[in-house]
Amino acid sequence: DAKTTQPTSMDCAEGRAANLPCNHSTISGNEYVYWYRQIHSQGPQYIIHGLKNNETNEMASLIITEDRKSSTLILPHATLRDTAVYYCIVRVDASGGSYIPTFGRGTSLIVHP
Amino acid sequence: DVKVTQSSRYLVKRTGEKVFLECVQDMDHENMFWYRQDPGLGLRLIYFSYDVKMKEKGDIPEGYSVSREKKERFSLILESASTNQTSMYLCASSLGGQSYEQYFGPGTRLTVT
């Protein structure tokens, strides 16, 4: 199973881009990279996922390196409400063909005024 | 709108009591999960279920059991609660197959005294 490594914490000024890195050097060819975030006192929330190509949605952009060993989640214009713990995960195969994510400790992002 | 609900936000139980944590999802999802979250340890998977009456152990199943009699409901049972089971418990569901996007409930903060 591919493991992920993320910095423990980061900070960012409001209105600036927040770039959150994730290392997944043992990822295999058919494993997806997923990002979630968890705002204090709430359950985690799905943000975005990708396999090889860069992805963008209304919340964020995901940049995956060509060798797929690392990725970066980009919040283009961070707001105070983006203060949260961000988890980068890859899938884990399980019985019955279902896929179970393994959450690490994530990166605590603090957006300051 | 997608919804995962948990029976209680806060719960206080005594050591040795049998505790039931209930989770209900209204999205007809195949997969359901129970995690616990402790400071500095991130989310750890206790049990998951990929079908009615099916269950599989996660990373930390000791001291817990689960029940899934209906597709929409997944119960976590602490047969004899202990103080080291004081934690935040999070339930999640996902569609199934290769769908990896999980939807989380608000969590239950359980205190065992």
Count interface residues per chain for the largest interface. Answer: A-B, 25 and 33 residues
Distance between the termini of chain B: 37 Å
Q: Please describe the biggest sheet of chain B, giving its number of strands, its sense, and whether it closes into a barrel.
A: 7 strands, mixed
Structural class of chain B: mainly beta
Low-confidence runs of chain A: none
Polypeptide structure, described:
The complex is a heterodimer of chains A (113) and B (113). Chain A is globular, with a radius of gyration of 14 Å. With 113 residues, chain A is mostly beta strands. In chain A, the strands form two sheets. In chain A, strands 1, 3, 4, 8, 9 and 10 form a six-stranded mixed beta sheet that branches. Chain A has a four-stranded antiparallel beta sheet with strand order 2-7-6-5, with no helix packed on it. Chain A has strands at 9-13, 18-23, 33-38, 45-50, 55-56, 61-64, 70-75, 84-93, 99-101, 107-112. The N and C termini of chain A lie far apart (39 Å). Chain B has 113 residues and is an all-beta fold. Chain B is 0% helix and 53% strand. Chain B is built from no helices and eleven strands. In chain B, strands 2, 4, 5, 6, 9, 10 and 11 form a seven-stranded mixed beta sheet that branches. The termini of chain B are far apart. In chain B, 36% of the residues are buried. The A-B interface holds A 32, 34, 36, 41-46, 49, 87, 91, 94-106 and B 4, 30-31, 33, 35, 40-45, 48, 50-51, 54, 56, 58-59, 90, 92, 94, 96-107.
